[in-house]
Amino acid sequence: MESGKPTALILSVLLLTATFPTGSAMGWGVVIGGVAAAVAAPFALPAIGFGAAGITAGSYAASLMSASAIANGGGVAAGSMVAIAQSLGAAGIGASGVISAGAVGAAAGAAVDHAME
Hints:
By secondary structure, this protein is mainly alpha-helical. The protein has 5 helices and 2 strands.
């Protein structure tokens, strides 16, 4: 991990646990979702084919790139989901990306908890 990622992960966990009461089911879902997403985030893009050396041939990312290029008349549009994912896969998501993933995971955990009530 880059030097900022462990700090970002610890900060995310502290913010999540301080914001939500962990004595309730809602609090635990938020914490579990946030931590799981923050931990998985640095590995998710390379796992589906968005790597430092480019998009891996035959991967899910290659399928997304192909579909995007067909939909845009032969090229991947700048600023598209595929272009952003490739940039993040090549450069790494950084501390802010880990925090953002944690926030999205926390929101998903809250939604699941709310749906199960």
